[in-house]
Amino acid sequence: MLLDNIQSPKDVAALPVDKLVFLAHEIREEIIRVCSNNGGHLASSLGAVDLTVAMFHVFPEECNRIVWDTGHQAYAHKLLTGRHKQFDTLRTMGGLCGFLNRDESPWDHFGAGHACTSISAALGFSQGAILRQDDARHTLAILGDGAATGGMTYEAINNACEHGGRMIVILNDNEMSISKNVGAISRVLTRLTATRTFLSIERSTWRALGRVPLIGRRLRNLASRTKFSLKHLVVPKNFFQDFGFRYYGPLDGHDIPLLVQTLIQLKRINLPVFLHILTKKGKGCSFAESNPTKYHGFAPFEPDTGEKRTNGEVPLPSYTDVFGATVCELARADKRILAISAAMPEGTGLQEFSQLYPERFFDVGIAEPHAVTFAAGLAADGFKPIVAIYSTFLQRSFDQIIHDVALQKLPVIFALDRAGLVGADGATHHGVLDLGYLRMAPGMVIMAPSDGEELRRMLATAAGHEQGPVAIRYPRGSVQPFDDQQPPEPLEIGRSVTAREGTGIHIWALGSMVGNAVKAAELLTEQGYDPLVVDARFVAPLDELRLRREAGAATMLITVEENGPIGGFGEAVNQFCREELADAPPLLHLALPGDFVGHGTHSQLLHKVQLDPEGIAGQILTALSKRQTNADGASGARI
């Protein structure tokens, strides 16, 4: 196999062009094989294979900087940069990251887990080369077309021609991000790429001319001069040129010889260049090509059919499923309820809503800040917008949450899916900071359900709250069966419930940690303790009434949350007890570590950070033991 002998891009450059097609085929087979076992971003990586091969063939030098926009395009990049032997470990604990990671390889020049970053980062590298007077470096930014719906991309484009230097931006246009692209930018790209028939005719004609003896070269030269005029009759001058880029394309992104020939020409240009290529998401895998949204990021599957691997059990509904069904139910009763997604209607559970209420559903593309302010405008006009965005992506909208929503006390509902540790996607996608940044917003009601029924009730609570914004954060994962036939009953805001009766030790757990806290309490009974477990439900406002009433009777008060240690639930409880309770008990705050957590299965990661039942019980026992030792020491000192 060719791939077995590739240790770096220099080995790709050493191959003749006619061998690159076979290398691309081997890469696709390897991606399908590993993703079928480990899960992963299948369709997006398959679509970028030919581009990656051509790019490394032309730009193999270590001095170059290659910046990917969202690393889910970059599995081929990993395979060609010395990680083939480790590729079986993709997305597993201690193995290769599913995205780009500067700690993993010197060829991962810039980490990429969120979209719209590549041009800005590449501009930094390009300007760095100018400052160092490094004339040998080329900087390439590979932009997924979904990122063309994000504002940061255009901030970078606006700045690039003034400071860009020798930089090539490659637009990988497959007409999709995760879901189908939306908006005016998508229509512009569609107009630019509406010439697929023209491209097919052009390519066939070009190859035919090459077979004509003697006069073929002259005919090709004539065709090249004619091509520019012909192309611009069909494809009008576009805004990339208006921003000052040298625009080339659109080209067939799966024609490796054509890509190589084009990149060689562009390598000679010392100005910012924009290369537009057309690719097929899922290329080379029939089921991924036919359903690229489904196979954008997918669990382990059968490589021949694409069917998801199961253990024979009927899958339980997920929190996302419960959210989607409940929003549809609430919308039937209240026509003011709208739903907003940032390019992920399927991932956030809003697909059914978009079909039932298309006039009340808005997909704004990969533009989270805009999504929040758009929702603020709707709320100011009397509607009840629900903004459904993954926790890790909503943090991109921090200023809009504060300035446009909270400051104006607007009743926007934030639904934060994938809160907490998300498993194999790793640090870029863990939703572990949301409680910290949401608690900063005055007037924000923040809730976290421990099961599907609580999620339904919290959504009903949010729908009826008119005094300001509400945030509900819930994990990736399944829920146990419950009765969802009755309309959800709203909760009393700021009130907790008892998850387990007990005395002495009080464990206040939030959301996803309630179940583990109850199990930990059962383990502690084996050591002679009988802990009380409280399902806090609310981070803001806290159940201050219950804390005042019961905290003084606790021998130790423990908070447990699947969130970072700063600014979250435990810190809120700690602050209240310190400032408001004269007889506050000893406090123990159990949360995720202050550093970024890597990738692995959810259960592996919880075990690693000691937030599984055994870890929670162990940390409590350790704290009790230290307290007893300190008490004995103090007593001895007095004697």
Give a short synopsis of this structure.
With 639 residues, the chain is an alpha/beta fold. It is 42% helix and 13% strand.
What keyword list fits this structure?
single chain, 639 residues, alpha/beta, Rossmann fold, 4 domains, 7-stranded mixed beta sheet, 5-stranded parallel beta sheet, 25 helices, 13% strand, globular
First and last CA, distance: 78 Å
CATH topology of the largest domain: Rossmann fold
What is the rounded Rg? Answer: 28 Å
Total number of strands: 17
Q: What would the principal axes of the Cα set say about the shape? A: globular
The helix tally amounts to 25
CATH superfamily of the largest domain: Thiamin diphosphate (ThDP)-binding fold, Pyr/PP domains
How is this structure best described in words?
This protein has 639 residues and is α/β, with parallel strands linked by helices. The chain folds into four domains: 3-194 and 235-290, Rossmann fold (3-Layer(aba) Sandwich), CATH 3.40.50; 202-233, no CATH class; 319-473, Thiamin diphosphate (ThDP)-binding fold, Pyr/PP domains (Rossmann fold), CATH 3.40.50; 498-638, Rossmann fold, CATH 3.40.50. It has 25 helices and 17 strands. α12 links the parallel β4 (246-252) and β5. It is globular and about 75 Å long. The termini are far apart.
Chain-wise SSE layout:
Blueprint: H1 9-14, H2 17-38, H3 42-47, H4 49-58, E1 65-68, H5 75-79, H6 118-132, E2 139-144, H7 151-163, E3 167-173, H8 184-192, H9 196-210, H10 216-234, H11 239-242, E4 246-252, H12 256-266, E5 273-278, H13 286-290, H14 319-333, E6 337-341, H15 351-356, E7 361-363, H16 368-380, E8 384-390, H17 391-394, H18 398-406, E9 413-417, H19 434-439, E10 445-447, H20 452-463, E11 470-473, E12 497-500, E13 505-509, H21 514-525, E14 532-535, E15 538-540, H22 544-550, E16 556-560, H23 569-580, E17 587-590, H24 602-608, H25 613-638
Parallel strand pairs: 1-2, 2-3, 3-5, 4-5, 6-7, 6-8, 8-9, 9-11, 10-11, 13-14, 13-16, 16-17
Antiparallel strand pairs: 10-15, 12-14
Helix pairs in contact: 2-4, 4-12, 6-7, 9-10, 14-20, 16-18, 21-25
